[in-house]
Amino acid sequence: MIEQLFALAQKKHITELEALTSESTNFSVQAYEGKIESYKKTNTAGIGVRGTYQSGTGYAYTERVHPSEAEALLDMVKDNASLIHEREPLLAEKQEGSWHDSQPDITEEEKIALALELESRARQAADVSDVSYAMISSGDGMRRIANTYGLNKSYRSNYSMAYLSVIVKRGDDVETDSSYYIGDLRHVSLDSLIEEAAGKARRKLGGKAVPTGSYPVVLDRRIICSLLGVYSSIFSARNVLQGTSRLEGMLGEKLFGSLDLLDDPYSGHERILFDDEGVDTRTLHLVRDGVIESYLHSLKTAAEMKQTPTAHGLRSYKGTVQIAPHRLQIPNGTQELAALFADMGSGLYITDVQGLHSGTNAISGDFSLAAQGYRIENGQLASPVKDITIAHNFFDLFSQPAVKATDFEFSMPSGHSQFGAPSILFPAISVSS
């Protein structure tokens, strides 16, 4: 169908055309109380086109990937381009390639049995009163980007995941936590998943608030990943151009202490070899030793700012080009987590936060989040802490001296982007109760 679209575009005086196709199969099964509570299998496919007509760029898409849709699709491109009067550049290079990353998979029957076994065994763990989620999921997807300049790239990959969330109860005290595994399900350790989720939840039992004040704090790697997810938008060149990022005009400035922040598209749960405009990805340092080195660019923002594209133009076949990171991460540290506690002496280890959407401001950098964790006393993990709020500013937080642990981990995938970080010791964070 793509070749037909390109031929027809010439007849309709569409001077350049790009086509993005996507197809995926997703499976998930969830067990509860010894039965299958949810079973889903979906197949999706679609094609989105972006073309230049007269002086504007128009978008259109269809989920009926059939030659009979070609003419209507291109007519929508022309209609939409006539309304916009602004051209978005396409990658004007002939580049071709096809890649396939795959891992072994198990049958659907085996996934169902695995979900049932995970749920059953989790219920037998000490203090577990209920299992919120015992889920096995998998997916297989392919995307192809091509245009009338000779661009033609495709990539196929798959994934498998086990996810567990449990509730523990001791008297009237109730807590919850979760764990996950991504990879070959033939090698998943259910015991490790259960102990991680139940163990983290058990350690929260009996938590109490601490007095209001300023404390040295170790933020767990999961919290760091969450903050990166919220504040990654400040590196978007589109936000810089629109004046909604504090990093406007800050390239080359030392703003973040000794922080290193990079986007490595070849790490995480799957590789990202090219973006949704066809630009080849590369490892990109956004911040090196506190100095801002780059923004995240699409072809359009790179042209506007006269900078090199960074391969961060992303879209689904249904949407327009947006900007987001691939595998944004803070590199691993050199000290064990226990050594950070010892260096701290007394303070807090924060392991959970709530309110990431309502309690953060990506423009000012301010955040105020409900939190849980543990006291650190004499350099040792002590009693659990809850019913507190931590508050700081993202820019000020990372301008402080910070010590990184050696427990680097990626967050659970959610959408395109994935974030990675170790736990980090900060000298002072405001805490209220």
TrEMBL record:
One of its GO terms (molecular function) is metallopeptidase activity. Gene3D superfamilies: PmbA/TldD superfamily. Signal peptide: none annotated. GO terms for biological process: proteolysis. Pfam families: PmbA_TldD_1st, PmbA_TldD_2nd, PmbA_TldD_3rd. Transmembrane segments: none annotated. One of its GO terms (cellular component) is cytosol. Belongs to the peptidase U62 family. This is Peptidase PmbA. It comes from Aneurinibacillus soli.
